[in-house]
Amino acid sequence: MIAVVTLDGPLGGNAASIQATAHALAKVGSAEAVVLVEGISDQIALATAAVSRSRDLDAERVVIVPIGGAHAIGRFLTGLGPLRTRVRLAGLCDLREEEIFRRGLAMGRVGSPGTRTEMERLGFYVCRDDLEEELIRALGVAAVEAILDAHGDLRSFRSFQVQPAWRGRAPEAQLWRFLRSSSHRNLRYARLLVEAAVDRGTLPRPLDALLGSV
């Protein structure tokens, strides 16, 4: 276990996020690879993709750690410093957090990537926008709506579409906001959309490449 990385300080998120971080950190001391992600939905998405590809990350000693927001990346990487000689590091972030992750990599003395390619060489990948946008684009509107329908949420989505703030907006944008408007929904569909993307062979590249790097 790493003494430097603790739950002290602002990790962001709620109690579930803090609990998920603590649970993951409890396994870091015996890990062979540690994947740092912004939140629980990213953790669920990666774990689901691994299971869908018949990988057992626990057996492989690959630990996915939700860090409670991109701004914590430097602190977590610094805390992992003593283990870096034997632990592979990797990570995933949204496009708007890319620069924060770059600064964190430098702060944690992992590297000073100036380009996206250099980040990927270090094992850190960037979603084109964010995880939800990647999955909606990978599946397409019709497929995402079919999944909503199969799980009883299509009627709620249709009601959402006619709300004044979202009426007439692109369906991709409507789906993105609908998925993110409830934390429970966001976490649930992180799994369901990834399962569908794996089945269709359209898993977004950042998730696919990240899994392949650990």
Tell me briefly what this model is.
This protein is an alpha/beta fold and 214 residues long.
Written overview of the protein:
There is one protein chain. The chain has a four-stranded parallel β-sheet with strand order 2-1-3-4. It is built from twelve helices and four strands. It is α/β, with parallel strands linked by helices. The chain has two domains: 15-128 and 205-213, 3-Layer(aba) Sandwich (Rossmann fold), CATH 3.40.50; 131-200. It has helices at residues 15-25, 40-52, 57-60, 73-79, 98-107, 116-121, 131-139, 141-150, 154-161, 171-180, 183-200, 205-213, and strands at 33-37, 62-66, 88-93, 124-126.
Keywords:
2 domains; alpha/beta; globular; single chain; 54% helix; 4-stranded parallel sheet; 214 residues; Rossmann fold
Assembly type: single chain
Strand content: 5-15%
CATH top-level class of the largest domain: Alpha Beta
- CATH topology group of the largest domain: Rossmann fold
